Automatic annotation (TrEMBL):
Pathway: Lipid metabolism; malonyl-CoA biosynthesis; malonyl-CoA from acetyl-CoA: step 1/1. It holds the Pfam family Biotin_carb_C. It is an enzyme of class 6 (ligase). Acetyl-CoA carboxylase is a heterohexamer of biotin carboxyl carrier protein, biotin carboxylase and the two subunits of carboxyl transferase in a 2:2 complex. Residues 120-317 form the ATP-grasp domain. Coiled coil: none annotated. GO terms for molecular function: ATP binding; biotin carboxylase activity; metal ion binding. Keywords: ATP-binding, Biotin, Fatty acid biosynthesis, Fatty acid metabolism, Ligase, Lipid biosynthesis, Lipid metabolism, Magnesium, Metal-binding, Nucleotide-binding. One of its GO terms (biological process) is fatty acid biosynthetic process. Its EC number is 6.3.4.14. The lineage of its organism: Bacteria, Bacillati, Bacillota, Clostridia, Lachnospirales. It comes from Anaerocolumna aminovalerica. This is Biotin carboxylase. Gene3D superfamilies: 3.40.50.20, ATP-grasp fold, A domain (3.30.1490.20), ATP-grasp fold, B domain (3.30.470.20).
Amino acid sequence: MIKKVLIANRGEIAVRIIRACREMGIDTVAICSEADKDALHAQLADETICVGPAPAKDSYLRMDRILSAAYATGADAIHPGFGFLSENSKFADLCKKCNITFIGPSCEVIDKMGNKSEARKTMMEALVPVVPGTKEAVYSSKEGKEIADKMGYPVMIKASAGGGGKGMRIVTSEEEFMHHFETASQEAKNAFGDDTMYIEKYIAKARHIEFQILADNYGNVIHLGERDCSLQRRHQKMIEESPSPAIDDKLRKEMGETAVKAAKAANYCNAGTIEFLLDENNHYYFIEMNTRIQVEHGVTELVTGIDLIKEQIKIAHGEKLSYKQEDIKIEGHAIECRINAENPYKNFTPSPGLVTGFHMPGGKGVRIDTALYTGYKIPANYDSLIAKVMVHGCNREEAIAKIRGVLGELVVEGIDTNIDFQYQLINNKDFKDGNIDTGFIERLLKK
Ligand code: ADP
């Protein structure tokens, strides 16, 4: 078995992975930047190596230093978490070359699914429904406009290398196309160093429904049901739940089988996610595959009882899947709210700084994944996610009541957070009725 795992990440996900390793009797090595020496993950791991200064490009993204840290400590595997190097095929390849197990899929699969227009092509060939749009990548605004004019507006311009909602623009008319194409491709170039674009039909009033996949090295692939991540701001998720209030057992079965087919077409191994958009007529379309553990994996763990991080480690070690599709039972209802250090009333500006007080609620069916503690100084250099509040109830109504209680009780002092904003969302009548789509929050903010 894997004996020592280096966690190439920080914050709550690093803590989550350290805890899973500890349960499995696996030693842990944390890496940290100079700004993170007091961070919880750096304190909890068996060993901690500082890999560079605060900016991520000088520390958490430094493959050479991270691999040296793995060598120096004798780690035999690396868990990349999410963000940072988790979807970097070069890093997965370097791990392999250094004889270190990368806890994730192969570099070939990361490459294939990381390029979103390539992934679309793979899915089209496998007869997985994709959003109507371009078959090939688009290299110029002129070429793009001709395609969009033919397709009819509104359309969505997207970056092949995109992620985190970046390099994406909705275009509602012919006149706007050139301007939006230029700004989206410039954003893509700055963020990903690649301005290859593609065009999709814009799906109005869509829901974001994604399926959790587990796949081993022996061709066994299962899904663990869906997560409804329709509550988004600027194409970034804010609240996730499982199961989705929008789909019935028949559609769940069909979409789940399609997700498994998609993962097989990608030759997938380890934990991954197939993302779909679901339109008002219950037609669903593949949008992308994420080749890593997701922020919102906890809601799936709550309704299935399966520990996804442990499964990732077992699969990476070469074990066969411990479950068959018929073993997977979805029980009750789980909801997650992402708590960010930001001010929703000042255009969601990040609010790093000293946490002067912290009270974490608890109770039956409550799970809070966080790396916060009183006296911790949140650095300004990284993502603003500070806690994931999750609940598990016997049904959606109970889960909503539970998370309302948790958000009402949660206290983070010294910095601004979105706790009150999340509380309002949970109490919104349309949310309670399950009547939401990906544009819900933006419409609410405009009121
Ligand atoms: P990223 O990789 O940046 O997260 P995705 O392709 O996963 O981008 O899309 C993120 C979100 O953007 C989706 O959940 C959805 O809300 C919106 N979106 C993406 N493509 C479309 C589309 N064709 N029509 C409508 N909304 C879309």
